[in-house]
């Protein structure tokens, strides 16, 4: 009985370790600078203004992962005399997994 439990525990531990290794490899392979074009397109879609990212994009992993955009410029519409609407040197975008998880696990209200 004890031997069976240890075997099951070893198999489960090995599978968890493989999962962590797979996630680490997947995150390591991501190049955050590949996200520049989709981010610029999304800013254009939402605001109607062109955006450029002149610096690098960094991905910081933690319990609240961050995407750091360096030297983001949002251009004004051509009707206005000024061309630059916004320049942000170091923009940090965070996502809190706790809030997302809490909204998923929140029990549905009963009628």
Features:
111 residues, alpha+beta, 2 domains, four-stranded antiparallel sheet, 3 helices, 4 strands
Short description:
With 111 residues, the chain is α+β, with helices and mostly antiparallel strands.
Question: How does this model look, in words?
Answer:
With 111 residues, this protein is an alpha+beta fold. The protein has two domains: 1-30; 33-111, no CATH class. Helices cover 44% and strands 25% of the residues. It contains three helices and four strands; from the N terminus they run ααββββα. It has helices at residues 2-29, 36-47, 97-105; strands spanning 51-53, 57-60, 66-75, 84-94. Strands 1, 2, 3 and 4 form a four-stranded antiparallel beta sheet that branches. A hairpin with a 5-residue loop joins β2 and β3. The chain is elongated and about 80 Å long. The relative contact order is 0.11.
Secondary structure elements and pairings:
Elements: H1 2-29, H2 36-47, E1 51-53, E2 57-60, E3 66-75, E4 84-94, H3 97-105
Antiparallel strand pairs: 1-3, 2-3, 3-4
Helix content: 40-55%
Q: Quick one: biggest sheet?
A: 4 strands, antiparallel
How many separate domains?
A: 2
- Provide the gyration radius in Å: 22 Å
Task: Kindly report the average pLDDT value.
Answer: 80
Strand elements, count = 4
Summed up, the helix count is 3
Which regions contain 5 or more consecutive residues with pLDDT less than 50? none
First and last CA, distance: 48 Å
Query: What characteristic shape results from the CA principal axes?
Result: elongated
Please trace the helix and strand order, writing H or E for each element. Answer: HHEEEEH
* Content of β-strand: 25-35%
- Structural class designation: alpha+beta
